[in-house]
């Protein structure tokens, strides 16, 4: 008897299903005013918003369009909080500033490692105050790149397995250092594209990752051909259609596009124009971006036909450089 297709098999991991169905991830990066990156110890709940002790952080950025990402702390004595903000005008990168909160300043005295693992609202309140200060311009500029690999198994088992495996493979690989910081993070969206990551301050989101692919992404080196189908888009751009157009231009221009100030104008009727200006690239491109297939967004291991959510893929037609 022939094996049933993956789109009807219950129990298939969502990332395996997405690969088999050749789901296009572009346009799924989200569009954000910025990111708040907060160190908070494991275990994390399914949703970062469900950590009661971080209410103060959420209140500071409520309604501002920032996405909160939790990171596994580097030490048990400090908690780092960084705020990446999208500057006005054409987008090149988010502007990042960071502060360190000394846990012993919040809860002084000798404490065991177990004590430090038990977080309380006092530490969350201190992180909230630090976030407020960052919004006001305090803190030190974030240097280099920050690579956030999703390992959030309580949110999705593919992120917990494929993401954790990727993170373990990257440790000691030489990717860290020389201006690159690697961290395990909470859900970045797009779990069916696991392993996933977000690269800051560039704001680029990627899926279906392996160590070689992520190494080329971080270094902005090597061929792009096999990376383009892994590109979810740049969260500094305002829509899935704009992200799809950017990828089409990236295929023509290559890595220098990410050093450009980029803006996308909606001309109406599905027609968009991307303008880029940077050290190696200056130009404008137009194309029609049309809705393509509408795909289910299944919960991991559940049949796609039971999904209550869908996403529409975008196809770029007639890309032309102006002038």
Describe the model.
- This protein has 323 residues and is α+β, with helices and mostly antiparallel strands.
- It has two domains: 7-29 and 144-321, 3-Layer(aba) Sandwich (Glutaredoxin); 34-141, Dihydrodipicolinate Reductase, domain 2.
- It has eight helices and 14 strands.
- The chain has helices at 14-20, 55-61, 103-106, 113-117, 121-135, 157-170, 211-219, 240-253, and strands spanning 34-39, 66-71, 78-85, 95-102, 140-141, 145-150, 180-185, 197-200, 204-206, 231-234, 261-268, 271-277, 282-296, 310-321.
- The strands form three sheets. The protein has a five-stranded mixed beta sheet. The protein has a five-stranded mixed beta sheet with strand order 7-6-8-9-10.
- Helix 2 (55-61) runs parallel beside helix 5 (121-135).
- The longest helix has 15 residues, at 121-135.
- It is globular and about 65 Å long.
- The N and C termini lie far apart (58 Å).
List the helices and strands and how they pair.
Elements: H1 14-20, E1 34-39, H2 55-61, E2 66-71, E3 78-85, E4 95-102, H3 103-106, H4 113-117, H5 121-135, E5 140-141, E6 145-150, H6 157-170, E7 180-185, E8 197-200, E9 204-206, H7 211-219, E10 231-234, H8 240-253, E11 261-268, E12 271-277, E13 282-296, E14 310-321
Parallel strand pairs: 1-2, 6-7
Antiparallel strand pairs: 1-3, 3-4, 4-5, 6-8, 8-9, 9-10, 11-12, 12-13, 13-14
What are its keywords?
single chain, about 325 residues, Glutaredoxin, Dihydrodipicolinate Reductase, domain 2, 5-stranded mixed sheet, 8 helices, 14 strands
